[in-house]
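2024-03-11 09:14:02 DEBUG pipeline.ingest accepted 1 chain
2024-03-11 09:14:02 DEBUG pipeline.ingest length=574
2024-03-11 09:14:03 DEBUG pipeline.predict start
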Amino acid sequence: MATEKTKLRSAAWFGKPDRDGFLHRSWMKNQGFPQHLFDGRPVIGICNTFSELTPCNAHFRKIAEHVKRGVYEAGGFPVEFPVMSLGESNLRPTAMLFRNLASMDVEESIRANPMDGVVLLTGCDKTTPALVMGAASADVPAIVVSGGPMLNGHYRDETVGSGTSAWKLSEEVRAGRMTVQAFLEAEAGNSRSAGHCMTMGTASTMASMVEALGIALPTNAAIPAVDSRRYVLAHMAGRRAVELVHQDIRISQILTRKAFENAIRVNGAIGGSTNAVVHLLAIAGRIGVELSLEDWDKLGRDIPCLVNLMPSGKYLMEDFYYSGGLPVVMKELGDRLHLDHMTVNGKTVAENIADAECFNRDVVFPFGQPFKSHGGIVVLRGNLAPNGAILKPSAATPALMQHKGRAVVFENVEHYKERRDDPALDVDENCVLVLKNCGPKGYPGIAEVGNMALPEKVLKKGVRDMVRISDARMSGTAYGTVVLHTAPEAAIGGPLALVKEGDMVELDVAGRRLHLDVPQAELDRRRAAWTPPPPAMTSGYQKMYIDHVLQADRGCDLDFLVGRRGAAIPRESH
């Protein structure tokens, strides 16, 4: 134990018999902590993103209590601390604007406080990457516990899923095929328990990604939020956090290149959210692993979609868990993964998935007979996206993956909303909808507006998909033939800014090409006449964000946050 005590960061606060140690311990004791908790026990910070304004994470107080049980049981000292909570359902202009801010909160909280290791409580979309990014930059022993998905939604005799059903049903209302009253009935049954989106949206995708990366315990991804097994997992994570500190296993030892390659392949197999692209690129940048947009295409190109979940399929996360969950998917991928990769529980991937068994082949398909032949993320390039754009084949219409159409252009999201249902809008199902100025700097925050609702006159013809292109993101719960994250973005003068109404745009998914059929001389003329849009704010955090945010192909992190700064003990405060 003497050797272990010398390794503890917390000893610099609690282990000194002088005035400073007296003050640190004394102030903590006003909460009723007994002296023996300060006698060389690992201090485990429980990073809690609880907030009643983040409905997905509103049950985290209970999860934190179960983590504490595990920490105490293993001989540690658990201390819970709050960080900024990012609720996709309420934050404006977009939760993504604040992902990097929350990551700073996490990193600096870890470094500045007497913590030896952390348990990261994540749930709603951006809380997962934000907490992992912050912990990666601090590089301490860390383990992730996701909050879990909601129970399946129900409307009358139909199953409804977070986001996905909302997009579909709202289109039915706009097309005149569903009443507003029926729409509101569906709303009441859509979110009927604690937890995050139960579709394979970004929250479920990122819960799957941390399991695939190896920084969460097996089955983390799919256990429903209200299932008692979620609390068991939280308890076991608390125990393991103490062991990680004793073994000095830091997050950088798990987040290796092999971990990211595994995660990219798993994302393809689950039909995961396009948002995983920017999040994994940002996490890799923090930990110091070389990862590029090309890796997404190269590693995921031949991975089929095995999971029949909304938005790519029909089932939901509750069904996924009962079918066997992510370990079954990883077992199907087999040696396409780095099976020797060591994970946070001290076992290899191969050991973790050895006993995985599928209980419903209509939910998780065999690799040799996949649900859909294309599951990965496609990276497109061309004169419209020289630094890349992405598309999710499993959520797209096969017939539109090779398409050439006339551009209908919206200069920003307000312009789109003004024109979309105008009877005078010259649009049909063969057109390509182009939305500008919704990227990292332009929105700001690269908002989830890329899955543009179709114009009313097209919906009334029975059309439910069109090619859509933007520098925005889309919700992981969304679907359609949607080209996203076009880089460079329009707000900094990327080629998207130069597209005009009536231009011909070509999408060739097989050829990985996105082309604007306009002569270069004309594009040069347009560029000379282009002026950037005014920034949303000229001071405060948004100004700092706009000045320093990287483009989508580099993960949308702030340039000065990239890298690992460690958790060296700061100088004393008194």
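2024-03-11 09:14:41 DEBUG pipeline.report The CA atoms of residues 259 and 296 lie 13 Å apart.
2024-03-11 09:14:41 DEBUG pipeline.predict end
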